[in-house]
Design brief:
The complex is a heterodimer. The radius of gyration of chain A is 18 Å and the shape is globular. In chain A, a hairpin with a 2-residue loop joins β4 and β5. The relative contact order of chain A is 0.19. Chain A has 7 helices and 10 strands. By secondary structure, chain A is α/β, with parallel strands linked by helices. Chain A has one domain: P-loop containing nucleotide triphosphate hydrolases (Rossmann fold, 3-Layer(aba) Sandwich), CATH 3.40.50. In chain B, β7 and β8 form a beta hairpin. In chain B, strands 3-4-11-6-8-7 form a 6-stranded mixed β-barrel. A 3-stranded mixed beta sheet of chain B has the order 2-13-12, with no helix packed on it. The model of chain B has no long low-confidence stretch (mean pLDDT 85). Chain B is of the alpha+beta class. Helix content of chain B is 56%, strand content 19%. Chain B folds into 2 domains: 186 residues, no CATH class; 188 residues, no CATH class. Classes of the chains: A alpha/beta, B alpha+beta. The interface between A and B is medium-sized, with 28 and 25 residues.
Chain lengths: 245, 422
């Protein structure tokens, strides 16, 4: 297992907020690694630092101190524009409330990430069609998001997250707005995608969801409490995570 | 590049279509601003053109000295009933003017109001006695026959030239040429020419030249004399006026000011100073008119700018509301890799599309409006292409200018907060 397999890495990351006179230590010295093909869930109670960690992982925020490496490159001191580039090229976001843009069709929603890289055209269209097919919505390209069910919207969102061939998918409570059977379908979709070498980092508070992952990182008061290996049948697909934590 | 721009513009259109009524109302501000700019400029330009034509009729190289009855004074009231009130230009003054400005052409003009008859057709109008140079100085054209000649004047011939309207009044059915007109019941004049229609305000006093009858200067002097008796309310008033008007044509418009000075000096110092001659300089009037039109145009432009400004504020208001409403979308786009400049582009394009739509409809309305103004108010209007482009350009600029702040606000939202926004 080579060093290049580490695609995202926290090295003693702190994130402090100033709240009036007080300093809130939302993250207080977190170190962790995500390897290629990993399926990692991040769990913790409210206030444990899950959201802060998600924002940092997604390059939406910068750590107060410490290093965050994406694909081997330290992004903790990058400018706003550079962070936009990292998000656009390396990260595929999946949100709890799907976050499709309502006035755009499915196809147009899928093309958004490539649009900001100036890659809109035949290529992006073919790719969108392929990925829409892949998530089972090949016939809905011209529909508006609100014409789709929640599960279908989340499928579109997953396809959108894959459009830019990201280093990893970053999911925020991806099944939080879905009923349990749809939740199962979405989690099955993640499992389907994994053999293609897709890495998933998911923030959740739902143990059923966490069980489907290879590993679960527990946060408590801004620190890593523990990292647990799961040995569910779904986690067997990849052995790259063996021996971590 | 072009495809990307088109994409951004189409995206803007799509977002605007989400709130059709709101977008339409916002657009209306710009629309009326642009329409009023174009309409006002068209009216201003039309009025300018009208004034220009009017003064060109009077002749921009011309000077006109006209006799004016002085205001009543104690001495004039004290006159006996039978002595005539003498005022106005004298033959000697006209000669002096002619001698002082050798480069100018001058035409002496006498006027008398008399009844004229032709068969059963009767009309009272001004009989103008003048010299052959009159035609050239006033830039009038003879439609039929000929103009008065020096020979007519020398022979004191009883010949006349009719103004267009007068010709129709006296000869409604037949050709007036070589027919005779009876003036004051006993004087017969043979018609030698008919003037083309002037359709102008210029004329003898308040009577347009179209309604006048023209005879040789000295014929006029001999037949009608210098003393004019009018009877009103049982009392007579007698006035002695030698010349009603002297028209002077300077060689170029550059000589006009000097010529005017010479004439004013002559009339005020050398002969008499009674304020009974009014010197009119069309060129000066034209310049005054242009000056006042310029002020008028500035006022119009300010009013139109204010309406565009109000339109712009409307756009800003709506764009700020849009940005707040779509905070979540901004967060999503930022998460998917949009840089600040992309967000700025998107919202600027939206504001630009909004104002450009208003601009386009405004241009159409602005082109239609002047036609209606011309139709209803008989005010000449002229739409210049550069004015249309100016108005449209201003509307686009307003959209961009007032879209900048909302776009800047959108771009500088914290992506984390934007994503969390409900």
């Amino acid at each position: 297992m080579s060093e290049t397999d580490i695609i995202a890495e926290f090295v003693d990351v702190h994130r402090h907020y100033r709240m009036g006179e007080n300093i809130v230590r939302a993250l207080d010295g977190v170190s962790m690694q995500v390897r290629r093909g990993d399926y990692l869930t991040i769990m913790g109670r409210s206030g444990s630092g899950k959201s802060t960690m998600l924002n940092l992982l997604g390059c939406l925020d910068r750590p107060t101190s410490g290093e965050y490496r994406v694909g081997g490159r330290d992004v903790s001191q990058l400018s706003d524009d550079e962070l936009s580039d990292v998000r656009g090229h390396e990260i595929g976001f999946i949100f709890q409330s799907f976050n499709l843009i309502p006035q755009l069709t499915v196809l147009e929603n899928l093309e958004v990430p490539l649009f900001y890289q100036g890659r809109v055209g035949q290529e992006s269209r073919r790719k969108a069609e392929y990925l829409a097919d892949r998530v089972g919505l090949g016939q809905r390209l011209e529909h508006k998001p609100l014409e789709l069910s929640g599960g279908q919207q989340q499928r579109v969102a997953i396809a959108r997250a894959l459009m830019n061939d990201p280093l990893f998918l970053l999911a925020d409570e991806a099944t939080g707005n879905l009923d349990s059977s749809t939740e199962g379908e979405i989690l099955d979709l993640f499992d389907d995608l994994r053999p293609e070498g897709i890495t998933i980092v998911m923030v959740t508070h739902n143990p059923t969801v966490a069980k489907r992952a290879d590993r679960t990182l527990w946060l408590k008061d801004g620190e890593v409490e523990k990292i647990l290996e799961n040995h569910s049948p779904h986690a067997a697909a990849n052995d790259a995570t063996e021996g971590l934590a | 590049m072009i495809r990307d721009t088109w994409r951004i513009v189409r995206l803007g259109l799509k977002s605007l279509m989400l709130h059709k009524l709101r977008s339409a109302l916002t657009t209306a501000g710009i629309l009326f601003g642009v329409a009023s700019v174009i309409a006002m400029l068209a009216v201003g330009e039309g009025a300018k053109q009208e004034a220009l034509e009017r003064f060109q009729d009077m002749g921009v190289t011309n000077l006109i000295a006209r006799s004016k009855k002085p205001a009543e004074t104690a001495s004039s009231n004290a006159q006996s009933t039978w002595s005539a009130l003498a005022y106005g230009l004298l033959y000697s003054e006209a000669d002096l003017i002619e001698a002082s400005i050798p480069s100018a052409k001058i035409a002496r003009v006498r006027e008398a109001k008399r009844p004229m008859m032709r068969g059963e057709n009767f009309h009272t109008s001004i009989i103008v006695g003048t010299e052959p140079s009159f035609l050239e100085i006033t830039n009038m054209k003879v439609r039929e026959g000929r103009w008065l000649s020096d020979l007519d004047d020398l022979r004191l011939a009883n010949v006349c030239v009719l103004g267009e309207t007068l010709a129709r009044l006296l000869f409604p059915l037949d050709n007036p040429m070589d027919q005779t007109v009876l003036i004051s019941g006993d004087d017969r004049y043979r018609v030698v020419g008919i003037l083309g229609e002037q359709g102008r305000t210029a004329g003898a006093g308040s009577t347009p030249y179209d309604e006048c009858l023209f005879v040789p200067l000295h014929t006029h002097q001999r037949r009608f004399g210098d003393v004019n008796t009018t009877r009103s309310g049982g009392s007579f008033s007698r006035e002695r006026v030698e010349l009603a008007e002297v028209k002077v044509k300077m060689p170029t418009s550059g000589d006009v000011a000097a010529g005017a000075q010479v004439i004013r000096d002559l009339l005020s110092t050398s002969i008499k100073d009674k304020g009974d001659v009014l010197v009119t300089v069309p060129l000066e009037l034209l310049k005054q008119e242009e000056e006042s039109k310029r002020m008028f145009n500035i006022v119009l432009a300010v009013i139109a700018s204010i309406s565009l400004l109000v339109g712009g504020i409307g756009i800003m208001n709506v764009m700020l509301a849009t940005v707040t409403e779509r905070t979540r979308e901004i967060g999503i786009r930022r998460a998917l890799g949009a840089k600040k400049k992309h967000i700025v582009q998107q919202f600027l394009a939206e504001a630009g599309v909004l104002s450009a739509l208003g601009g386009i409809v405004g241009v159409i309305l602005g082109i239609v409006l002047p036609f209606l103004i011309t139709l209803w108010f008989e005010q000449e209007t002229i739409i210049l292409p550069q004015h249309v482009m100016l108005a449209f350009g201003i509307s686009a600029a307003v959209g961009i200018a007032f879209g900048l702040y909302p776009a800047w606000r959108a771009a500088n939202m914290d992506p984390v907060d934007a994503l969390r926004h409900e």
